[in-house]
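Lecture notes, unit on binding sites. The following record was shown on slide 14. It pairs a sequence with pyridoxal-5'-phosphate.
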Amino acid sequence: MFGRSWVEIDIAACVQNYQILKGFLLPNQEGMAVVKANAYGHGDCRIASALQDAGVRNFAVSNVEEAVRLRKAGIQGQILILGYSPVEAVGLLQEYDITQAIVSEAYGRLLPSADIKVQAAIDTGMNRIGLDADHPQECARVIHELNRKFHLNGIFTHLCVADDASENEFTQGQVQKFREVAELVSDLNLEYVHCNNSAAGLWHNTYGNLVRLGIVLYGLKPAYENVLPEGIRPILQWKSIIAMLKDVYPGETVGYGRTYAVRKPMRLATIPTGYADGYDRRLSNRGTVLIHGYRAPVVGRVCMDQMMVDVTDIPEVDLGDEVLLLGKEYNADDMAADIGTIGYEIVCGISERVPRKYI
Ligand SMILES: *Cc1c(COP(=O)(O)O)cnc(C)c1O
């Protein structure tokens, strides 16, 4: 099963990250584990179970399939769907006791009246989902309306630049707008009022009683420039092996499109991992892997299922040797920086065909 391309996930490191993050919570706050997108590619059931054992009672996902899977895996606390669910899902929401975000007033009307928990999303400036906090009275009216139709147990907003210190003013403005709406519905005594994601939980934590911890649970940064608290570390390593070794000479080229020209005698290793595994094609002629602790640059284009790396200067490489695609020395944030994206996209992109192994 393992041996071609696989991921190793350190569950204890995830729990430890959570324990460290707990130190940033205010006395009235709890952490909500954001385990959407298969826990950012790390495996939602395993991650959520471990965090539940560590005391987490709130979980967030992106859709009803994810929510139901967690329930079936024995997750007992609140499971909040952070975005839209089709109205046909209402039966499942009720059956599995799943909390649905209400993304707009119109959506609240469309969703059939049922014995389900909901939370109203509030838009404080991201312009993605939620009731418009620039009209707080309107928000309050809709929230009261939702409270009559469903079991409304909370409201939340999303802070879209909390990872950027130069945008502090905007973030504080968002929190202020949210607070204003929350105060207008204080008569409802809502159980959950929350605005903070990972970045806000670390650097703007002033308000709310839940902090939605996502990327930092996995030991990655909201933005590359960020400095995470001491001890937070990536929990995932991605490994493959050397499938073949080959010497190439000046005049030859490597891979599709002949984008790499050989200029000196070189030794190449072929690695059985490609873009269908989620190894981003933008890493062509750009990424690096580690073999025996040495960096081996990707040469030529990443293929669907394979790629070639330069092992000329690495002593004693052999068929079957382990190749580290992501690890401590070169993690998902580093890979992301190499191709102009974010660590989130790297880990979410590791395909299902790459087995997850828990250590
Ligand atoms: C994804 C998401 C989060 C988690 O964000 P991180 O940056 O990973 O902490 C929190 N809240 C909402 C609404 C989200 O969509």
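Take-home: The longest strand covers residues 117-123.
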